[in-house]
Amino acid sequence: MQRIWRPLLLLLAIALCLPACASAAQAPTPQYGYTVVRAYPHDREAFTQGLFWLDGYLYEGTGLEGRSSIRKVRLETGEVVQQRDVPAAYFGEGIVNWAGRLIEITWRSEMGFIYDLMTFQLQGQFAYPGEGWGLTQDGRRIIMSDGSAYLRFLDPVTLKQTGRVRVTEAGRAVDQLNELEYVRGEVLANVWQTDTIVRIDPATGRVVGRIDLSGLLNPSEIVPGQTDVLNGIAYDAAGDRLFVTGKQWPKLFEVKLVRKPAS
Q1: DSSP label at 19?
Q2: CA pair distance 29, 15, nearest whole angstrom
């Protein structure tokens, strides 16, 4: 009799769990809007590909062949206080700091560069397969995007890939991941050609939030054929400030995220 009841009880437990389990699995991704805390000047000629905050300054990597550069920028004025141009053959992409170095990847050249963070002097270069889009770091490793649905993990010393994770939302791949920023245990990623930033759990690749940043620029600030997409995220951990901008935008914004009511 015991042999008969155990399977029946197991089936009953599964049946009772199904509605709750399905509901949990299909729970919608939390959605966030924003409020603008402050707007700052930004170089309209800067085709922003990478951005981070360090010791009171923004560091910015810009793209386009013949126009790529790495820059140190004063937040309050947008003044470029230090700049190094990238050779014209390369399309600059993401940048990240690590142990006194500034590391930059390029789009389709499968080549990255290592600079001294203080002087911007070139210290070396490294190779990687495929495209390079965005970079950030979590204190243990460098995290890289390549336009696909994968985040790559790199050893910060050798810059060799040590692993990767597939980014998904409700079981579906989320690709076109571009500029990255590590914020309080999550990776924030611009989704190319959208006004969306996704919040990613780097341990699982699961999207744990979506940020809608549409409407940051006034229509009068948009120059057709020049003003490009949202791209560029920087986080000041000490001040808990989140900065965002875009390619050839005239402004950079400090924003506070606001959770939207569940629909």
Answers
A1: H
A2: 26
Tokens standing for residue 223: 């120059």
pLDDT of residue 262: 83
Tokens of 217: 């620029």
CA dist 169 and 121 (Å) reads 41
- The Cα-based distances of 195 to 70, 109, 191 in angstroms read 24, 27, 7
- Separation CA 194–CA 212 (nearest Å): 9
Domains in the chain with CATH codes: 31-259 (2.130.10.10)
Provide the 3-class DSSP secondary structure of residue 249.
coil
Q: Are 208 and 214 in contact (CB under 8 A)?
A: no
Instruction: Name which of 211, 256, 248, 255 is nearest 63 in CA terms.
Output: 248
At residue 231, the pLDDT reads 96
pLDDT the model gives residue 226 = 87
Mean pLDDT split into 10-residue runs, the chain, 263 residues: 48 48 66 97 96 98 96 97 97 97 98 98 97 97 98 97 97 97 98 97 98 93 89 97 97 97 81
Cβ atoms of residues 128 and 105 within 8 Å? yes
pTM over 0.85: yes
State the DSSP string of 188-241: EEEETTSSEEEEE-TTT-BEEEEEE-TT-S-GGG--TTT---EEEEEEETTTTE
